[in-house]
Design goal:
By secondary structure, the chain is α+β, with helices and mostly antiparallel strands. It is built from 6 helices and 18 strands. This is PhzF family phenazine biosynthesis protein.
Length: 284
Amino acid sequence: MYYVIDAFTETKFGGNPAGVVIHEHLNDEFMQKFAAEVRFSETAFVRKVDHRTFEIKYFTPKSQVELCGHATIAAFKALLDQQTIEGNNTYFIKTLAGTLSVEVRPPLFMMEQAEPKLGKIVNNYDDLSKIFNIEKCQIGDTQFHLAPQAASTSLWDIMLPVKTKKDLYDLNPDFIALAEFSKANNVCGVHAFTLDAKEGIAETRNFCPLYGIDEEAATGTSNGALTYYLYKNGVIHTFNQEYTFLQGYSMDRPSEIITKLIDEDHPKVMVGGNAVILSKGEIC
């Protein structure tokens, strides 16, 4: 069974579209070719293990990745549509990032992220300034002394703070140079954000040309990493509270990503949102 689902939105043609394939025995070669054919930023291939557990593999048009937030939300929307799962339950997914929990609380689906980590701080702004065609003085924020830094809740991105919403919208990356920069720094891409947002904690843009995704309308894992980065930098403090991140507005695909910090002793991040089915059918 094949679905096209818009994730992190309540409206068709909003959010981030993902392909979802529910199968019993497809091989990785088919999955990669299928993902390249349909050309969504990620396609999730879901196989039932038992009544509470599912294996999910994620493929971009170019390669397999460990985890994908919006494709997971889409996958559970499809499973709920098929009545394979029920609302108000917790399920588990086996991924390359480990076994993670997913809470199904319609209309929201909330997924556990892998262990959050922070990496190196980028102190030299020359490369980022040149790649994104911005002045170095536009990088940072006006209150918390934030700096670009690698962060991960399964996939590494560089969190790039910019001071204003205009600065965020004016970003015009050189995608070839950004792919080379990402490869050199062992990250998937750059997750740019500003705290200059009237709604939500931050507004974001995500760039991942190294994996064939110039810009993505909603990125669950990256906003999960951003949540942890903001927690470690003193911007947010409260556990078990929902935080909203906006993304995709610069692409006319408005998305709302919900995150939550859990377990104060060993902090982790939950990421989720709503989803809308656009189409479904059989694979011939």
